[in-house]
């Protein structure tokens, strides 16, 4: 294989991996296109053609190698990885790292996920639920119990997400658990208002990433990926709603 | 609204925004700024509602402020914009209305449920439109800067 061909392969590999990591972890499409084009240009490719969708990327550069496809199979929310890819791309543009190092770091980034520790996530879920319950409903006495319900709800969501890996199902179950807990705790006299506790408790499950990305994608003219994200957000919201509604039906 | 209530709301919004950022794994050095942008959007919304501007206009202004502030933060910190505006939008989400809608549908009170459904749709639309307007501001600013640089 000629060295030029090897170099082109590496450029394609790097750009495609960067793009895949960004879409997998919840970036909007415009940023992916921008980053991949920059990588190709900074690596010395004269032209690059891109077709980025939410389920896969197609990329070609001028030279001896053909276009390549990279499927995007899973979707999570890990915005730190997007920031890291962004940083690496900037460093590459400033010639602080070369293409080989860039590719190695991307491959490495893919295999490790540096989430916040689980106890901190539980605490964060509690700190989303309780304060927002107070902000929305002005119901201070129910602050603590909302924190507890939100935390347990996130725990259910996290565990299910790990084992069944269908996000909508985990959201549904978790919302049902939150509703059930709210009803039971109020019945036991630990809280005053079922409504307020549920409203606070489901806030950590709000699909903030798909909502925002959907709007941004549609504005940028990605009329396939934007509505797709919108459907994702809608299904999440519906799953949460059905979970709550199921509990309320049986009251 | 008393001063104490206002302080509680600001603190609650700040804490909740940062905590939501932790749940979607935002880098540590973006958390603080994201929290303050969330507070900015919420305060704007709250005061618009207090002064009789209505929910829809309040959410619209809040979303515009979040969009514009996020872009400035993204420029200063050299990080993607979505790190700042995704957590910041969480306090504006119409959670209460959505819950009332679900509850009334589940209990079979459809006419009440439709009132809340309409509110949810209008508030979500206002937030989306607010983002659109903020994008307009951002594009104008970018254009102005580019023009400025060339001179």
Automatic annotation (TrEMBL), chain A:
Which Pfam families is this protein grouped with? ThrE
Does the keyword field hold Cell membrane? yes
Cross-referenced InterPro entries: ThrE-like_N (IPR010619), ThrE_Dicarb/AminoAcid_Exp (IPR050539)
Its annotated compartments are: Cell membrane
The record's PANTHER family line, in alphabetical order, gives:
SUCCINATE TRANSPORTER SUBUNIT YJJP-RELATED, UPF0442 PROTEIN YJJB-RELATED
Of which family is this protein a member?
Belongs to the ThrE exporter (TC 2.A.79) family.
Q: What is this protein called?
A: Threonine/serine exporter family protein
UniProtKB/TrEMBL annotation, chain B:
User: What InterPro entries does this protein's entry cite?
Assistant: ThrE_2, ThrE_Dicarb/AminoAcid_Exp
- Provide the transmembrane region boundaries: 6-24, 54-74, 81-102, 114-137
**What keywords is this UniProt entry annotated with?**
Cell inner membrane, Cell membrane, Membrane, Transmembrane, Transmembrane helix
Location relative to the cell = Cell membrane
Q: Where does the Threonine/Serine exporter ThrE domain lie? A: 10-137
Please classify the protein's predominant subcellular localization into one broad category: membrane
Give the bilayer topology: Multi-pass membrane protein
Q: Which Pfam families match?
A: ThrE_2
Family assignment from sequence similarity: Belongs to the ThrE exporter (TC 2.A.79) family.
This chain belongs to the protein called Threonine/serine exporter family protein
- The record lists the organism as Levilactobacillus angrenensis
């Amino acid at each position: 294989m000629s060295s030029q061909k090897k170099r082109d392969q590496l450029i394609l590999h790097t750009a495609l991996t960067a793009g895949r990591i960004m879409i997998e972890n919840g970036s909007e499409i415009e940023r992916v296109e921008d980053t991949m084009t920059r990588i190709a240009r900074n690596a010395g490719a004269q032209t690059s053609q891109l077709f980025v969708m939410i389920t896969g990327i197609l990329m070609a550069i001028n030279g001896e190698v053909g276009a390549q496809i990279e499927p995007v199979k899973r979707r999570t929310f890990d915005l730190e990885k997007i920031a890291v890819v962004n940083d690496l791309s900037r460093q590459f543009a400033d010639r602080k790292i070369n293409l080989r190092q860039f590719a190695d770091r991307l491959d490495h980034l893919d295999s490790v996920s540096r989430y916040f520790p689980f106890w901190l996530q539980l605490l964060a879920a509690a700190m989303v639920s309780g304060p927002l319950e107070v902000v929305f409903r002005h119901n201070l006495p129910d602050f603590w119990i909302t924190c507890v319900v939100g935390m347990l709800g996130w725990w259910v969501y996290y565990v299910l997400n790990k084992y069944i890996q269908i996000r909508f199902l985990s959201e549904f179950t978790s919302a049902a658990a939150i509703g059930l807990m709210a009803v039971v705790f109020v019945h036991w006299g630990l809280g005053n208002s079922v409504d307020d506790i549920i409203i606070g408790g489901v806030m950590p499950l709000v699909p903030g990433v798909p909502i925002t990305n959907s709007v941004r994608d549609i504005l940028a003219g990605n009329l396939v990926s934007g509505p797709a994200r919108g459907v994702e957000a809608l299904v999440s919201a519906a799953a949460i709603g059905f979970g709550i509604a199921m509990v309320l039906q049986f009251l | 609204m008393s001063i104490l209530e206002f302080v509680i709301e600001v603190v609650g919004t700040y804490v909740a925004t940062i905590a939501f950022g932790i749940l979607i794994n935002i880098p540590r050095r973006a958390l603080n700024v994201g929290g303050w942008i969330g507070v900015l959007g919420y305060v704007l919304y709250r005061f618009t509602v207090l002064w009789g501007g209505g929910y829809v206009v309040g959410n619209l202004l809040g979303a515009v402020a979040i969009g514009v502030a996020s872009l400035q933060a993204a420029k200063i910190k050299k990080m993607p914009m979505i790190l700042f505006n995704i957590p910041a939008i969480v306090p504006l989400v119409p959670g209460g209305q959505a819950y009332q809608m679900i509850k009334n549908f589940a209990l079979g009170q459809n006419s009440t449920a439709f009132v809340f459904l309409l509110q949810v749709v209008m508030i979500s639309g206002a937030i989306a439109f607010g983002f659109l307007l903020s994008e307009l501001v951002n594009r104008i600013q970018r254009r102005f800067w580019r023009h400025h640089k060339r001179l």
